[in-house]
From TrEMBL:
This is S-(Hydroxymethyl)mycothiol dehydrogenase. One of its GO terms (biological process) is formaldehyde catabolic process. Its EC number is 1.1.1.306. It holds the Pfam family ADH_zinc_N. Gene3D superfamilies: Medium-chain alcohol dehydrogenases, catalytic domain, NAD(P)-binding Rossmann-like Domain. Belongs to the zinc-containing alcohol dehydrogenase family. InterPro entries: ADH-like_C (IPR013149), ADH-like_N (IPR013154), ADH_Zn_CS (IPR002328), ER (IPR020843), GroES-like_sf (IPR011032), MycoS_dep_FDH (IPR017816), NAD(P)-bd_dom_sf (IPR036291). It comes from Lysinibacter cavernae. SUPFAM superfamilies: GroES-like (SSF50129), NAD(P)-binding Rossmann-fold domains (SSF51735). Its cofactor is Zn(2+).
Amino acid sequence: MVHKVQGVIVREKNAPATIETILVPEPGPGEALVDILTSGVCHTDLHYQQGGISDDFPFLLGHEATGIVNSVGPDVTEVKPGDRVILNWRAVCGECRACAKGQPQYCFNTHNATQKMTLEDGTELSPALGIGAFIEKTLVAAGQCTKVDDESDAAAIGLLGCGIMAGIGAAINTGEVKRGESVAVIGCGGVGIAAIQGSQLAGATTIIAVDIDQAKLDRALELGATHAVNSRNEDPVEAIRALTGGHGADVVIEAVGRPETYKQAFYARDLAGRVVLVGVPTPEMMLELPLLDIFGRGGSLKSSWYGDCLPSRDFPMLVEQYKLGRLNLDAFVSERIGLGDVEAAFAKMHAGTVLRSVVEL
Ligand code: APR
Ligand code: ZN
Ligand code: ZN
């Protein structure tokens, strides 16, 4: 049986996101059909609309989601119908070179559903990040489903599926923040705030929020930062050094994605400090640095892709931290919207007035 459901697509570059009828096949081998409960609106969905990620239009948007497994295909052992799951876009293959080296967070053969969801005229859809979750039911690889307990608010825990995981993971996985350390987070949007919460979870004692927008800094202070630096008014590198005994931070997390903030992150680290780059730059951005400054300060420079997360390890652990009240995922849910409000949510995201709009189905 083919399921006829409503979903949000973008037909061509810069076309508006519209609700269409979509045909979703029954799950085949290794696949799961998931009834979506919630899906957060992420910058990546907007980038798909703008053609910045791929030309493979039309796209089925949405990828930061929770749902309930409706049915599974043959040979699926990961999940069963009725399981509450968070979807992920890194279902590791277990066989590629990265997986063989014990670094599945770099798996380059991640699994997605092999069957296609289509429009009624047969046009095949490209699901955003291999998920496509602004839809009543979606088809994914079973490995894209991580079972979590079913008591927590779906809108909140679903955010672990992408941007919030990227920020938390930048601190706890890539940056390996340890108790008592100092962390500076440059850029306090959703990803930066998540990095602040991750640093707090890891036991950092000095957490310095840096942004050019005072409202973002005020919120950062409410959500775990111990200090705030407005880099419109003061030099953030000097301010971070002053707040860390003149040294610089043990870990600096860049969550903007611009050359000037990459540079600030680089200079704000302590000798042998770790710089974590989670902000995504555009292809034309360049940065020139004296080699002696790279050499002389030691430490490490690491980029963080999806927070170096392993969904089956990190999602259930973070849901537990949320249930214990140590991780404030509720703070990220700025508004709950319907499928028809995605375009308006993009505008709010662009204006910076929301941390996350979450589509509820
Ligand atoms: N210095 C400091 N902060 C800045 C600067 C700057 N020069 N320019 C922008 N910012 C701040 C903004 O004020 C905002 O608070 O950076 C924040 C960016 O937040 P969002 O636009 O909400 O983006 P977010 O979802 O947090 O993602 C940040 O991480 O994963 C990546 O692709 C994502 O590159 C993006 C980055
Ligand atoms: Zn692999
Ligand atoms: Zn995302």
